[in-house]
Amino acid sequence: MNILQINASARSEGSQSTHLAKEVVVHLLDAHPDANVVVRDLARQPFPVLDEAALGALFTPEAQRTPEQAARVAIDDAAIAEIQAANIVVIGVPMYNFGVPVQLKAWIDAISRARVTFTYTDKGPQGLLTGKKVYVVLARGGLYRDTAADSQVPYLRTVLGFLGMSDVEFIYAEGLAMGEEAAQKALAEARKDIKAIAA
User: Fold this and answer.
1) Annotated binding residue at 97?
2) Is residue 107 a contact partner of residue 5, using CB atoms and an 8 Å limit?
3) Which residues does the UniProt record annotate as the domain Flavodoxin-like fold (predicted)?
């Protein structure tokens, strides 16, 4: 059993989404004590953005890449190897300006590679990262669940599904910036859901 934890917060310390993602992993380890856990902290180890140089490297045949291009592709190769090996993926996601953090988008770009993690067929695209369970922990200052302002859940459900990860559960901690009482209620509800799904 391999568990991959992705911390998407821009903060390495004090992030509620990271704390809650860690709690999911702790509960999963209760059920799978021999599991191997890999943690990607995207604040400490951010992925480079997908720019013109990166595209040039990815679209250059491997034997023709410069050393710089090979090094750039190797960064994404490592992320792909981690997600391919994972049986369970836990992603801690804060909401920044109604969207996902740029750090998370860069990671998604890194693991999204044609003919490796998805492919196109005569029936349309097919995800190749199948057979994985994904838990997404969402930390938000306000209340956005099931509203038009929530762009995170539709985006993550779509892109993860595109890559073959359709078994996705979302855990919500909302209202964290709406006063101490609201924050404590949000964390209590999230922890209740964490205990339930991990069981």
Assistant:
1) yes
2) no
3) 1-196
